[in-house]
Every structure is written in C-alpha cells, then in structure tokens.
Specification:
There is one protein chain. 47% of the residues lie in helices and 12% in strands. A seven-stranded parallel β-sheet has the order 1-7-6-5-4-3-2. Helix 8 packs antiparallel against helix 9. The longest helix has 20 residues. The protein is globular. The chain starts with 5 loop residues before the first strand and ends with a helix.
C-alpha cells in the first residue's frame, strides 16, 4: 500500500468556450503546485467538476495531470458514476494511464441500501492494483457511507484511506476509533485541517489548496512537527479562504482565485455560474491578505 499523506489539491478542470480541456493551463498548474511543495494531486475531485464532464474530458484531465506530474508526486484520480460497471471501467482506465491511486465517489439517482453502497466501492477496489481512497460527502451524495460500511470496506487490502467531507469532525474520530490503522483519514475543506491532524488525520484533499498551496504545506509541516500554537495561528488566517470556498460554488470560487493568480482556467461548466465581479473581489481580498 502506497503511503499517501499531506496536501493533495483538488485540481480544477480548465475548460475553454468550446468545452475542450485546456491541457496547457492544467499542466502549468500541476507543475507550479508541485514546485510549491504539495504532496500529491487529485484530478476529478468535487472542485474538478467531474459531474459536468464527459468521459473524454475526464480522461484528458487525468492524462494531462499524470503527464505533467512526471512521477514527482502521486496522482489520485477521481472515479465517479451512478453505475458500478462504468466506475470500474474508469478506474481500470486511469490505472492504465498511470494513476497512483483512485478516489472513489458514488453518485446515486435512486436511494441505495448499505449493501449496494458497499458493493460499489468494493467492485472498484477489486478491479485495480493501486490504493483506493473512499470519498463521502453527504452534502451532495444521495447515499452516504455508514460507519459499519466504512469498517467493512477498511478490511479490503486496497482500501486504505477515506476522505470525509461531512463537516462532522466527531464522525472522523469515530472512523479512526472504529477502524484503527486499517484506514487513514484525509480532511476536506469543510473540516478544519489542523484539528483533523490533531486527532490523527494524515492530511487533506481540498480545492483551496489549489490557490494557497505554499501556505497549506506550511500548515501541514507545522502540524507534523506538533507545533500546534503556530499551526492554529496559521489555520485561523487560512480559514478565511475555506469560508469563501463554502460560501460560493465550489469550482467557481477556486477558478476565480486561479484566474486572479494568472491561470486561464475558464468559467465553471454550465449550468454552473461564474462568480460575479463583486464575489471575485471577495476572493481577491482574501488572497491578498494571505500572500
């Protein structure tokens, strides 16, 4: 099992007016993030607008990320579908492209029972030879992962991580207590990363790290060094960008921040709306204060 830890930015998916992936922009972003010290990259997370891209676009995002990374940090590619067969096909394809891990996301139209939810994640993990991070986000998903389900999945030899975006930090501690060393917890932007590190988390996978990578890595290093007073001081400053991220559309906020920083990532995929001029000013002010 690979050792995933630290700061994994959820990459945006730069798209032009014709709907094509701006591979040059994405490649430059990946290179700059790695230079900033991030520990891995996650294409096709929530910030990557996976739900709005077709299969060819998703493949282009993953392939571009892998090619730009050149093996310098692990790439954990997002796999999401309402269909188990489609999710398995995506996971196999991304492993073949060179992904180092899979972030498994369940989409659902009809409600699913625990057995079906578990079966979906288990099928993905059975289909690949690389580590799988299971992802849960009850704010957007129709079918969530229960503690019992997480505990059973944690026994799978390739399911070694969970990224939980529930906003419920107590749930994270319950997962750690229940599963022990069999599963490692990544924080989301909805949680306070320093608090998650304090209770035993191994890092965070989150959109804001795209626009504050250097500061995110500094926060992680302070947490690892157990310099908690300094970590919490920095966390208080950085939390302003998390607040903005939660206030606005996920991709729109991060894309606006990247545009301010000089990356031509384009607008969110329709029917999502870009931030207004006034909303962009809020993001710009926060970034200016954090620079």
């Amino acid at each position: 099992m690979a050792d995933f830890h630290g700061v994994f930015p959820y990459l945006v998916s730069p798209v032009d007016a014709s709907g094509h992936i701006r591979t040059d922009v994405l490649g430059r972003l990946c290179d700059d993030l790695i230079t900033s010290g991030v520990h891995g990259l996650t294409p096709l997370g929530s910030t990557g607008e996976f739900a709005y891209l077709n299969n060819a676009e998703r493949t282009a995002v993953v392939q571009t990320t892998i090619e730009a990374t050149k093996g310098r940090v692990p790439v954990v590619a997002g796999v999401a579908s309402t269909s188990t067969a489609d999710a398995v096909a995506q996971a196999k394809s991304y492993q073949k492209l060179g992904a180092n891990g899979i972030l498994a996301i369940l989409e659902a139209y009809f409600p699913l029972a625990d057995a079906q939810v578990e079966g979906y994640f288990r099928a993905i993990a059975d289909a690949v030879d690389i580590p799988v991070v299971i992802y849960t986000n009850p704010q957007f998903q129709r079918s969530d992962l229960t503690l019992d389900c997480i505990a059973r999945l944690s026994a799978h030899p390739r399911i070694g991580y969970i990224k939980d975006a529930s906003t419920n930090t107590g749930r994270l501690l319950s997962i750690m207590n229940r599963c022990g060393d069999s599963i490692k917890v990544f924080s989301a932007s909805a949680h306070i990363p320093a608090a998650v590190m304090l209770i035993g988390g191994v890092g965070w996978m989150a959109g804001p790290a795209c626009i504050i990578p250097r500061q995110s890595v500094e926060l992680y290093n302070l947490c690892k060094a157990k310099r908690w007073d300094e970590a919490l001081t920095l966390q208080r400053r950085l939390w302003r960008i998390n607040e903005a991220f939660q206030r606005y559309n996920l991709a729109a906020c991060i894309k606006a921040g990247l545009a301010i920083q000089g990356y031509d990532v384009g607008d969110p995929v329709a029917p999502q709306a870009a931030l207004t001029a006034e909303e962009c000013k809020v993001v710009e002010a926060v970034l200016r204060d954090l620079d």
